[in-house]
Amino acid sequence: MGQLAYYSVLYYVPYPFRNEQVNVGIVSFLPSGDVRVHIADNLRKVLAVHPAANINEIKDLSVTIPAFLKQVGCTGEDIFNVLSKFGAVKCFPDPCMFSYVGEEGYESMVENILLSLVNPERKKSKRNVTDRLFSDIKETFKAYRWLGYDDKDINNHMIVTRFPVAEDFGIKAEFALKNGKLHLIESVDLRLGTFSQKRQEAMSKMLIFDVAARERNETVNSYVVISGEEIKNMKPIVSLLDRYAENVVRWDVPEDVENFLTSMEGATGKIRTPLFHSPDGEGN
C-alpha cells in the first residue's frame, strides 16, 4: 500500500537585494513524522552565482534543518512555513506531494524530483557577463551591509564605490574602505576582452594603487579581484598580478573569497550573518 509524503524545494538566495535564487535540494515530511533533507550532489550553480558560498554548510543542511525543527518543536506541514522564513536557504511554504511504496520507492521518487527540479542543466549558458565581476563584488558587500551610499560613508568604516583617489587626475578606485589605513579594491574580469586589453587593464589597476599612495601620502592596502584565470592565454596577466599586486583574490576560488571577506569583515567591524540560523539568532 502506498504512502504519501509532502515535500518542498530548498533554494539558496545569495543576495537579498537581487532577484536571484538557486535550487539546492528538497525537504520532505513523511507519514512517520520524520523530516528528511536531500541536497543535490552538484552545487556548481551556487558557486557560479556566489563564489563565497559555503558549500559544506549547504550540504550540512541535511542534518542542521531536522535538528533546528526539533529544537523549535515544529512538526507536520508547519515545517514548510517555518523554513520559508529563515536563513539564506529557504523552501516554498506550500508543499507538494508524492506517493511511494517502501524505502526504495521513496528514494526513487526523491531522485526523480532532484533531477527535474534541482540538478543544474548541462547546457552552457550564453548569459552576458559584462561587468558581472564588479556587480558580484558590489552585491556581496551590499548583502553584508558593508556598502555606503556616498563618499562620506568611508569615514564610517563603510565601503564606497568609485572613490576619487587623485581628484586632479580624475582617478577613481572601484571600491575603497578606510579603517586606520586606506583599503582599495579593483577587479579584473579575464572572461571579457582580448589579451592586450586585459594586460593594459591589469597595469592600470596597479597604477591606481601607486598613484593613491603617492597623492594621498598614506599607506594603501590593495586588492585585485580576478575571475577567469583558466582562460587560454591569460596566464601571463595572472603572473603579472601575482608578482606586483599586494593581494590577489581569485573570485572563482571559495577559499580566496572567504579569506578576502574575512579581511573586509575585520576592516568594517561588521560581522557577517550566518547562512542558516534559528529565530533567536543562534546557529544550529
UniProtKB/TrEMBL annotation:
<protein>
    <recommendedName>
        <fullName>DUF3037 domain-containing protein</fullName>
    </recommendedName>
</protein>
<dbReference type="InterPro" id="IPR021398">
    <property type="entry name" value="DUF3037"/>
</dbReference>
<dbReference type="Pfam" id="PF11236">
    <property type="entry name" value="DUF3037"/>
</dbReference>
